[in-house]
Design goal:
Length: 525
């Protein structure tokens, strides 16, 4: 606790604290002896004064000057007749509502006693202490000596998921129940065709959660899958190494509930099941392969907070590495708490940024090659049997697109001209139709080196971003919209939202069922 006089922080225990208490007792005794002080010229008085000074001197005088500085300040205030500088007087008046009437005059003896008495309950100038804000990334309390827990992401977008969210997650409202622990942690892992992502979070206010830890690494698990139909040895090794880090992070925490999923690469590969068996053997993590419909619903759940109350129709798309999920959402008068309940039509295109770039080449993309990729995706969309979406026109205000993928977040980062990718500025941003067209034209005008040099793209995505833009362009031609909202979120957020909603953690005043931490080897649903 800070000292009210000096602002320093002395030791809380040990010899210095004992000496400091002894010094305080001596000062009080000295004030009590003030009326019966002996003659200053007598030898006894001189000797008593020396003994008193020795008794008053705390341990801080021997090591430095903190106690002397406090003594000089007290003497200076006494010489000024207790006058306070203007700014100190304002601070005292501002804190008066938190102080008792005994503290009205700071120079009184009673005030000094009360200040010492209540020193452990107040901060400087008598202000009540406030709780320290919880850090956005919480370090593990204790980690096994053999566990490697990295601090930063290996993705070139450094730790982007661990930053504060825009949708109300800066304020942490905790709804504690009688049987709940201080931290109810949930975990979601998404092993995709291009990325391995982990998110650990704690529920806060209804519909929101606070990110406790996150990890993301580009593993390119689907590299070469389109040509061979199998996962390559190098790709599997990269994925297993990333999953080991995820397992180490999960072992350091008590997770109430978790769900670990694998998507298109493991779904389409002939050796996908064998690979997941290897993952379980080497990391202890047991992943489940989800179908495409579940993937589409999870993408919608993860982005539900970005759909405003004025929206009546939304087309949400997730451009992945090996597949692209599209969901048509129609919202009536009675909006459900789960946006996924409003999905009327959905499709999963068997094409993503990795498969399309490998098929047509992603390094040197000409306008003609770009148009070829767009037409290929358009032919796939023609087979999607979906009636026209109400309001899907350029002059409508109740319809818009939502894109959740590295492609749209990259476009937003380039549009904002960020010196470094910043999730807080990208997630939830609106892009007009003209702005999206301008960004696609800019990327198409850059060569591979130019794209790799951009801080929002990097060398890992330089050969993939134009393939993603081709998929995006085909979607925009099918559902023209005056604006598009960018979502830097996806399956992990959908998994967390669904698990927390199923457990009822956001229901006020309702006791939650007691759950013991589950074994992370099993898929949690």
């Amino acid at each position: 606790m800070s000292d009210p006089d000096s602002g320093l922080t002395p030791q809380a225990d040990g010899a210095s604290a004992a000496e400091r208490r002894k010094g305080k007792s001596s000062r009080r005794a000295k004030r009590k002896r003030g009326h019966g002080r002996p003659n200053a010229h007598s030898a006894e008085a001189i000797q008593a004064g020396k003994s008193s000074q020795v008794a008053q001197r705390p341990a801080e005088d021997e090591a430095g000057s903190p106690a002397k500085k406090r003594k000089r300040r007290r003497r200076a205030r006494a010489a000024q007749g207790g006058a306070q500088p203007a700014f100190q007087t304002q601070q005292l008046l501002a804190s008066a509502e938190h102080r008792s009437p005994d503290h009205a005059h700071p120079s009184s003896h009673k005030s000094g006693k009360n200040r010492r008495k209540h020193r452990s309950k107040r901060g400087l100038q008598g202000r009540p202490l406030v709780h320290e804000k919880v850090a956005q990334i919480v370090a593990p309390a204790s980690a096994p000596s053999n566990a490697h827990v990295p601090v930063a992401h290996d993705d070139h977008r450094q730790n982007r998921q661990s930053q504060p969210r825009r949708e109300g997650q800066g304020q942490h409202h905790h709804y504690a129940d009688a049987d709940s622990r201080p931290l109810d942690l949930y975990a979601a892992l998404d092993l995709g065709t291009n990325n391995c992502r982990l998110l650990i979070a704690q529920p806060t206010r209804p519909g929101q959660f606070r990110v406790v830890d996150a990890f993301s690494r580009i593993v390119r698990l689907g590299e070469g899958l389109g040509a061979s139909g199998r996962l390559s040895s190098d790709a599997m090794d990269r994925a297993v190494e990333a999953l080991r880090i995820c397992a180490a992070k999960l072992k350091t925490r008590e997770i109430r509930r978790m769900r670990l999923i694998a998507t298109e690469a493991c779904r389409a590969a002939a050796n996908g099941e064998a690979f997941l068996a290897r993952v379980t053997e080497e990391t202890g993590l047991r992943l489940e392969i989800i179908d495409r419909e579940t993937e589409a619903r999870l993408a919608v759940s993860g982005c539900s907070s970005l759909v405003g109350p004025e929206a009546r129709s939304v087309v949400l798309f997730d451009i992945g590495g090996g597949s692209s999920e599209i969901a048509v959402i129609r919202i009536g008068e009675n909006r459900s708490s789960r946006l996924a309940n409003h999905i009327t039509h959905w499709t999963s295109l068997p094409v993503g940024v990795v498969t399309l770039s490998e098929r047509h080449g992603g390094r040197d993309v000409t306008p003609e090659l770009f148009e070829t990729m767009v037409c290929e995706v358009q032919r796939m969309l023609e087979r999607f049997d979906c009636p026209p979406v109400h309001g899907a026109a350029r002059d409508s205000g109740d319809f818009h697109l939502i894109g959740t993928s590295g492609t749209v977040t990259t476009l937003a980062g380039v549009h904002l001209d960020l010196p470094r990718y910043d999730r807080r500025r990208v997630d939830g941003v609106w892009l007009s139709d003209d702005e999206v067209s301008a960004m696609q034209a800019k990327l198409l005008s850059w060569d591979f080196a130019g794209r790799a040099a951009n801080p929002c793209i990097g060398p890992d995505r330089a050969d993939l971003v134009l393939a993603g833009c081709a998929i995006l362009e085909a979607i925009r031609r099918r559902w023209p919209s005056p604006r598009m909202r960018v979502a830097d979120r996806g399956l992990r957020e959908g998994l967390l939202t669904d698990m927390m909603a199923d457990d009822g953690v956001w229901r006020r005043g309702r006791s939650r069922r007691g759950h013991r931490p589950r074994d992370m080897k099993g898929p949690q649903t």
